[in-house]
Design a protein that fits this description.
This protein is of the alpha+beta class. It is built from 5 helices and 5 strands; from the N terminus they run E-E-E-H-H-E-H-H-E-H.
Length: 151
Amino acid sequence: MKAQTTFSSPLGMLEITEEDGALVSILFVSSSTPPTPPSTPLLSKAKKEMEEYFRGERSSFTLPLSPKGTPFQKKVWEITSTIGYGETKSYGEIAEIMESKAYRAIGSALGANPLPIVIPCHRVKAKASIGGYSGGLDKKRILLSIEGIKA
């Protein structure tokens, strides 16, 4: 079963998709997209946890996730998920953990993250800059600011 909800956030409209009892995607959608109420208990919980996060009341998520990607991408997302609230790591640090020199591939995997915010790719920065973000740098700055990180 596939279900979705759309709601307004400090980053604009977000669309959360659930499939077979786990979240599979969070998308930044057009501001003209109308909000839709959650149709499942998991989508209600996801919306509630994300709203708590945006208000600074939640530092981690307790949602079942099932991101679709290659084994390499999933490994990058797994490592990224261990970066704590209010902390950052560099692309190089992720590469060291993976015992890899594939910095660009790591950046591409982060850009393909289907569950931004919950899998906190916004916490990965370049050594000398904020780095990129699939939702745009303005959204990355907002997320880092929520967590008390200077961008």
